[in-house]
Amino acid sequence: MQSRTSTSSVAPGRGTTPVDVEAVPGRRPSRLTRLRLIGLCLLAICVLGSVAAASASALPKALIDEATVSGGTESQEAEIATAQGFEVAVVSDEAWGKMTQAEFGEYQVLIAGDPTCGGLPAGLVESAAVYGPVVLGTAGGRTAAGNRIVVGTDPVFHDGGDYTSPGARGTIIRDGIGFAGKLSGRTGMYFDASCSDGIQATEDLEILEALSNGTGSWTVDGSPPCGGNVSLIASNPSFLDLTTESLQGWGCSVHESYPTFPTDWSALAVATDTASHPTCGVDPNTEESACGEAYLLVAGTDVVVKSGSIELTPPSATNPVGTDHTVTAHVTSEGNPLAGQTVTFTVTGVNEGAAGTCEPSSCVTDSSGNVTFTYHDTNGEGDDTIKASFTDEGGSLQSATAKKHWGEGGKEEPTTTTTSLSGGGQSGPNITVSEGTAVTDQATLTGTNAGSATGTVSYKVYSDSECKVEVADAGTVPVSGGSAPASSPESLAQGKYYWQATYSGDGSLNEGSTSECGSEVETVGPPPPPPCTKAIGSATFKAAGEKAAITNKLYTEPTKKQKQVLVLKWENGANALKLTRLASAVCTVTAKKAVFDGLGEATLNGEPGWTVKFKLVLTTKKHRFAVHAKITKPGEETLRVNGAATSVSSEEIA
Fold first, then answer.
1. With CB atoms counted within 10 Å of each terminal CB, which end of the chain scores lower, N or C?
2. How far apart are CA 365 and CA 650, in angstroms?
3. Among 101-105, 146-150, 226-230, 562-566, the least confident range
4. How many CB atoms lie within 10 A of CB 641?
């Protein structure tokens, strides 16, 4: 098994010092190494919201491998899962590696997160053959596959602790865990490959192969361009607030990409600046086409993939259980029917891996560019996603999906309307936001025939727990294929509010229903403090017995007399970085912490031409100070300096 190793780095004229080395694939080694300072200070973010009237034993459970996150129970992944209503257990990697399939089967979602840019731990890798079948619904008491997502980047390192604000870089963590843990009675998985890069390609593949049951194979590009050119090319109700803008421009938006992958997976987003462009699709938000290597991938239900070259009809349908269903793939080139193209069909969901028959039997498109696929429901009531794919003349994979619900049909059945609030970067049945924050409500319909529901959903806001005193009408939206858009955003004054959604019914297969009053509560507090403008002070650190120090005098909008200063020294002063020009800076403050983000030019040990991207974090309650810096130069090895001081006297971010 490949692993990261400790080596030595020698500064000019100094002795050897052990450091943790993570080489950047494809870069020329230099005399400098990337240093990770021990003692990263992770800040606990207050988890707002609870599941009303539910005991801990009634909550769905989430399991986290401690070695894959930063901060254990205070990690972003743990806080997100808790806010989404999961009872969270964090276990050591050693304990994870010894778990049985029956033990994994007790959890609705397994989480391997981002340890702020790190590798894949041994227990997670070596037990893939144990938990993989559980996730695929063939072991551990599970009979149907759960939703799966793979993330080929390190969002925790880049998001600055923000996974809640609109457009936050941490949105992929929040939405990804929500998708993986969406299906009750199944075990899903959120797998972040983080910064395993090409160093652990074998380990990465071992995990991914254990989570796949489609045809085709995985390949890993461990050294995609360290840029920020990416695009969404698929959608799912769990990813409604994920955008291309929230994923791109990270500096290193992509650490691992996957040129090929099994048919039960779909690309959620691609890196568009890779040398090859094997996967194409349409951005669900902009309707623009994009091609590249997939780096965010999903497998499971309700995945919607569009392409300008292939269409699957009907896009959604409901059939009685135990019957057949037929879809038609229509393949085109520049709008014209394309004959002679082999189309691959894959079913995920309640009939995961189902085989079917094509017409023509070869699954090759006819003169009209069409080929049909028919399969049988053998597993009863539930939902499927059907994917049709072909490889175009440029060698790129083009795909489209359709949704299928299996229900009794034929008569009007009861429905249940449940809801979830979103605003201020939070989501759940109960949220607390600042005054002036726009909040929306999202209704979800369930029931025997809910997958085919039409009609409308009306959203209301009340000031009392009996939902009698209306304070806002948040709109009425159409229901199509069982899905309803969110309400209009509402910004309310300070106080407590009770949201309620009412489904009209469709007069044929689905009865109307109303969400329970008091099941979702919005608490509006005072507005947040204003943004900060400066970071001034100094601090010292200890890392592996060695001294590190920082001196900073930084401003977001300096006057002519204010000089920008950033000096970072480590290895007892053997290495020193000095800022020569601050290109951009953003300072933000919350009730718990203040953060100064900056990007600029610097010298390293007197050598010009380096770029430094840094983040200074100061807690407002415990007065802890953390430093994160990424130092790069074309042709040189990338350095990462991360450290924290728990006793700080002079640092101020205000």
1. N
2. 71
3. 226-230
4. 24
Which residues touch 607 (CB under 8 Å, ≥6 apart)? none
Q: Give the separation between CA 152 and CA 265, rounded to whole angstroms.
A: 14
φ, ψ dihedrals at 328, nearest 5°: -120, 125
Backbone angles phi, psi at 567, to 5 degrees: -125, 120
pLDDT at 23 over 80: no
User: Is the backbone peptide bond immediately before 360 cis, with ω within 30 degrees of 0?
Assistant: yes
Lowest mean pLDDT among 146-155, 160-169, 499-508, 548-557: 499-508
Q: Across-strand partners of 91?
A: 65
- Alpha-carbon Rg for the chain, nearest whole angstrom, is 26
**Residue 437 Cα distances to 465, 523, 525, angstroms:** 21, 11, 10
Number of residues that make up the chain: 654
Q: How far apart are CA 425 and CA 470, in angstroms?
A: 25
Residue 518, both tokens:
């008091």
Q: Residue 261 in contact with residue 216, Cβ under 8 Å?
A: yes
Through-space distance between the first and last CA atoms of the chain, rounded to whole angstroms:
47
Residue 354 Cα distances to 138, 143, 144, 357, angstroms: 14, 14, 12, 10
Q: 313 pLDDT band (50/70/90 cuts)?
A: confident
Sequence-ordered alpha helix ranges (H) in 211-243: none
Residue found under tokens 């002070």: 537
Q: What number is the average pLDDT over the span 100-116?
A: 98
Q: Which residues contact 495 (CB under 8 A, 6 or more apart)?
A: 463, 523, 524
Which one-letter amino acid corresponds to residue 196?
Answer: S
Taking the C-alpha atoms of residue 301 and residue 350, their distance in angstroms, rounded to an integer, is: 9
**For the purposes of burial, counting CB atoms within 10 Å of the CB of 44, is it exposed (0-12), middle (13-18) or buried (19 or more)?**
middle
Strands (E), 15-142: 16-20, 61-65, 87-91, 109-112
137-170 burial: b if 16+ Cβ within 10 Å, else e: bbbbebebbbbbbbbbbbbbbbbbbbbbeeebbb
Judge whether 16 and 10 are in contact, CB under 8 Å.
yes
What's the confidence (pLDDT) of residue 572? Answer: 85
User: How many CA atoms are closer than 13 Å to the CA of 270, on its beta-carbon side?
Assistant: 29
Instruction: Find the mean pLDDT for residues 408-431.
Output: 85
pLDDT tens for 324-350 read 888 889 999 988 899 999 999 999 989
**For 37-56, how does the pLDDT look when each residue is reduced to its tens digit (9 = 90+)?**
233 233 233 333 333 333 44
Residue 6's pLDDT is 29
Q: What is the 3-state secondary structure (H, E, C) of 161-183?
A: CCCCCCCCCCHHHHHHHHHHCCC
Structure confidence at residue 285 (pLDDT): 87
Peptide bond just before 60 cis, omega within 30 deg: no
Average pLDDT along the chain: 86
Residues 7-11 have a mean pLDDT of: 30
Residue type, 508: S
Whether the pLDDT of residue 60 is over 80: the answer is yes
Q: Are residues 210 and 131 in contact, defined by beta-carbon separation less than 8 angstroms? A: yes
For the record, the structure tokens of 106 come out as 């007790």
| Cβ neighbourhood burial of 466 (10 Å; 0-12, 13-18, 19+) | exposed
- Give the containing element (helix H, strand E) for 77: helix 76-83
Q: What is the pTM of this model?
A: 0.54
Q: Does the pLDDT at position 227 exceed 90? A: no
Residue 542 three-state SS = strand
Report the C-alpha gap between 156 and 163 in whole angstroms.
9
